[in-house]
Amino acid sequence: MAELLRPPEAVLLDLDGTLVDSERLWQQAYRVWATRSGVTLGADWWTGVVGTSLDGSIGVLAGDRSPEQVSEDVGTVVEAAVRLLADGSSGREPVAWRPGARTFVAGLDAAGVATAVVTSSPRVLLDAVVDRLGIEVLVTVAGDEVARSKPDPEGYLAAARELEVAPAACVVVEDSPTGVAAGEAAGMRVLAVPSAVPIAATPSRRVVASLAGVDLGVLAALPAPMGPADH
Fold first, then answer.
1. C-alpha dihedral over 23, 175, 154, 168, to 10 degrees?
2. CA-CA distance, 171 to 63, in Å (whole number)?
3. Residue 66 lies in domain
4. Is 3 exposed, middle or buried (0-12, 13-18, 19+ CB in 10 A)?
5. For 192, what's the count of Cα atoms within 13 Å in the CB-facing half-sphere?
6. Do 123 and 14 belong together in one domain?
7. Which one is predicted more confidently, 121 or 173?
8. Residue at 226 is within a domain
């Protein structure tokens, strides 16, 4: 008989592509940067940067650049994204809840499950999106607050420590292979909800089309991690 797993004590959520549809926001911000920097974006450029840190994305799109240039490039992308969030002239929301995400987060809160957002986005953008959509979680960890971005587990482990929950008692919800790798490296159960890039199911990972209908029963039935890393 399969082992019965308890519901998680904490659920750690990625932001972009998982809770929030921010594709339009980031695509426009990167295009602003590319135009200013003279960088040509290829046909499949977006899938190459999904789930990647901002500085890592600059490397993917522009090749080798000095640390100073990368810092300037990241600043341009972030500035463009912040302006897009503040600009309502287009008549279209730059960010929106992903299908089922708002109900999912509300259900976790009602059940008393601790929640956190762990993102590769910098603090200024994390706070702007959280405020815009009214996302309510106990802890938030931004990409510029960790030394190593996803797929390193640092952000997820930091959130678990702040929530005072053991990694094995956490579930990570992610939309990208990079984020999934970070959750698995942290020794946490993972639920994958792919957005722009496909994610394969494995014996230790369940993949769903959206968060619609996902509840504590689904999370409790997730397979245990293959082998929690020693952190």
1. 150
2. 35
3. 23-86
4. exposed
5. 25
6. yes
7. 173
8. no
Question: Does residue 142 have a pLDDT over 70?
Answer: yes
**Tell me, what amino acid is at 205?**
R
The domain tally of the chain equals: 2
Our CA angle for 195, 90, 135, nearest 5°, is 50
- Which tokens belong to 185? 């490296």
Q: Which residues pair with 190 in a beta bridge?
A: 172, 205
Asked if residue 40 is part of any domain, the answer here is yes
Both 45 and 113 in a single domain? no
Question: The domain that contains 61 carries what CATH number?
Answer: 1.10.150.240
The overall average pLDDT reported for the chain is: 90
Q: How confident is the model at residue 227 (pLDDT cuts 50, 70, 90)?
A: low
pTM metric for this prediction? 0.86
Which CATH number characterizes residue 105's domain?
3.40.50.1000
SS3 content of the chain, % helix, strand, coil (to 5): 45, 15, 45
